[in-house]
Write a structure and sequence with these properties.
- This protein has twelve helices and ten strands.
- With about 325 residues, the chain is an alpha/beta fold.
- Strands 1-2-3-4-5-6-7-8-10-9 form a ten-stranded mixed sheet, with helices on both faces.
């Protein structure tokens, strides 16, 4: 096992489950909520893009990351005294993608097995949940740390195993990996958490000295992708929820299919680093989104009050995958 035991202990307490040598699995709140409400309640990915909440496999390939974002609700190695060097990953540490995915699916099924026969759970939905069709390697860590060859192989393997969609969510610190992907994900997310380098260093606390330049390079690459692209702007009151025109200047060059201004949620380790009132209200997010949409000429397509997120796009309506 290549995850330090001190870190793994915290993950276990937070409900994460180990799969393979480096992987983690945790069915999200909305998967369980969707099962218990017979599909009446679901996450914004289902609302926006048609991704069925109860059929999503949410995973981590490896928990290392190149940023220490203040707003992150996940435990960071530095929070418990571990260093970046202790989480460096090499190819020989990783399971073969098919081996890892099969281990993750098996663990996912084991976790959900107790929902069978639950009086609030529809049996057909449970059976569907046991066979996930959507994969998101965004639970913890930065997936592009594993390199283009490994991610391309993972995507190919996932599609061959019956997954219909794979979303890649990245902090944008490794544009060279995005450039060399042989197989694209179904949708690519890049996080933009600041309108300028000074704010970025304060909010994201990068471990790479040229992290900001790397993000700008990743954003420039978005137009080269065939799949839909998304820029996620995670907003924190009093830190980076400012100057939407400066964000717009950056986004004009990126030209993403979608933009998702979203509130940083005061959960988990967020509360150890920031006061609860740093989490913006949905009304604030919507006001920011409307200003950004007007500046860019994007359409406001949808919003989710529960997740405090607004969907902007140059399209008239979102591409629904299911």
């Amino acid at each position: 096992m290549y995850i330090p035991e001190r870190l793994l202990e915290v993950y276990r307490k937070q409900g994460y489950h180990l799969a393979g040598r480096t992987g983690l699995v945790k069915p999200c709140h909305w998967l369980k909520k969707s099962l218990k409400t017979k599909g009446r309640e679901f996450c914004y990915k289902q609302k926006f893009y048609g991704i069925p909440s109860h059929r999503c496999l949410q995973i981590s390939l490896y928990p290392g990351c190149s940023q220490r974002c203040l707003y992150c609700w996940r435990v960071q190695p530095q929070d418990i005294g571990l260093s970046w060097n202790e989480l460096q990953v090499t190819r020989d540490m990783l399971d073969d993608p098919e081996v890892l995915l099969r281990a993750m699916i098996a663990e996912h099924r084991r976790i959900l097995s107790g929902y069978k026969g639950h009086p609030e759970v529809d049996l057909k939905m449970w059976e569907e949940a046991m066979n996930p069709v959507h994969l998101t390697p965004s639970l913890v860590g930065e997936p592009t740390l594993l390199g283009a060859e490994y991610l391309s192989s993972l995507f190919e393997t996932a599609f061959s195993m019956g997954f219909k969609t794979v979303f890649l969510v990245t902090n944008g610190n490794f544009p060279e990996v995005l450039e060399r992907l042989d197989t694209e994900p179904s949708q690519l997310y890049i996080s933009l958490s600041a309108p300028d380098e000074e704010t970025y260093k304060k909010v994201c606390r990068p471990l790479l000295p040229d992290g900001w330049q790397r993000i700008l390079r990743s954003l420039e690459l978005l137009d080269s992708f065939r799949c839909p692209t998304v820029v996620r702007i995670t907003l924190v009151r009093g830190l980076n929820m400012k100057d939407f025109r400066a964000y717009a200047k950056i986004l004009k060059k990126a030209n993403p299919t979608y933009i998702e201004p979203k509130a940083a949620m005061a959960l988990g380790y967020f509360r150890k680093r920031l006061p609860i009132d740093s989490m913006p209200r949905h009304e604030e997010i919507k006001r920011f989104a409307l200003g950004l949409a007007k500046e860019l000429g994007y359409n406001v397509l949808d919003e989710s009050l529960h997740s405090r997120v607004v969907l902007l796009s140059r399209l008239e309506k979102p591409i629904r995958f299911y």
